[in-house]
Design brief:
This protein is an alpha/beta fold. The protein has 2 domains: 164 residues, 3-Layer(aba) Sandwich (Rossmann fold), CATH 3.40.50; 67 residues, no CATH class. 38% of the residues lie in helices and 25% in strands. The protein contains 8 helices and 10 strands. A 6-stranded mixed β-sheet has the order 6-7-8-3-9-10, with helices on both faces. A 4-stranded antiparallel β-sheet has the order 2-1-4-5, covered by helices on one side. A hairpin with a 5-residue loop joins strand 1 and strand 2. Helix 3 crosses helix 4 and helix 3 packs parallel to helix 5.
């Protein structure tokens, strides 16, 4: 299988226990890789580094074989992402925001309308197509952000806590969408604190603690939450003995 994303030795310290410290991970084509960890474990930080929003002090990142600092602009069009807050122009309606996002990701003018229509259907945004983003609920703004990240069918998808503010129907739509994208060959990296939810879609679950990957969880583990906390606790004890 092909690694669409590979992170080796990612290091960027913001303090003794904050940042990334030699973090390694890989995302394979056709697979969903989930990152889980307590608040401050480094999930958002590594995603920001992957998306060139943050410069590493050590380590390297490759996307589809190209080193991050040498990626041509066209290659970024094959990346879809939602990190921290969904971006939308508040005075523009849902359809217009999606159309702008599609153009920014290189969708040809003649295809934009069809791409946007498909995204609106896929994420259940039909009722809100003509509604200004500033009037959307937090959950529907999240749906809009996810739709903008996925509508151009990127080969690498990077989503930070994508189920934030989503109602159960939105969670199901997102789950089905990500599974379809992975089945079509995309690599998906998703962070979440909802262990049961990521277990429904993930092929691999990596546990982050204090900026390092400290182990992986088997998606078939009966008590996933307990296994997670035991792994984090064991790492904390090991750190204290150093």
């Amino acid at each position: 299988m092909t690694d669409l994303l590979r992170v080796r030795g990612a290091t960027r310290a913001f303090g003794p226990d904050a940042g990334l410290f030699g973090l390694d991970l890989a995302v394979t084509a056709g697979r969903v890789h989930a990152l889980v960890g307590l608040n401050g474990a480094g999930k958002t930080t590594v995603m920001r580094a992957i998306l060139a929003m943050l410069r590493l002090s050590q380590g390297d990142i490759h996307i589809d074989g190209a080193r991050l600092d040498r990626m041509p602009a066209a290659a970024w069009r094959q990346v879809g992402h939602l990190v921290e807050q969904p971006f939308a122009y508040p005075e523009l309606d849902t359809r217009t925001n999606l159309a702008l996002a599609a153009r920014l990701h290189g969708v040809e003018s003649h295809a934009v309308a069809a791409v946007v229509d498909a995204a609106i259907i896929e994420l259940g945004l039909g009722r809100y197509a003509a509604v200004a983003a500033r009037r959307l609920s937090q959950g529907n703004r999240q749906r809009l952000g996810v739709a903008a990240a996925l509508q151009h069918h990127p080969t690498l998808i990077v989503l930070d806590e994508p189920t934030n503010a989503l109602d159960p129907a939105g969670v199901i739509l997102l789950r089905e969408t990500l599974l379809r994208r992975a089945a079509a060959g995309a690599g998906v990296l998703v962070s979440s604190h909802h262990l049961d939810e990521v277990a429904r879609i993930a092929d691999r679950i990596s546990v982050l603690n204090h900026g390092r990957v400290v182990g992986t969880l088997d998606v078939g583990t009966p008590d996933l939450e307990r296994a997670f906390f035991e792994m984090v606790h064991a790492d904390d004890e090991k750190r204290e003995r150093r």
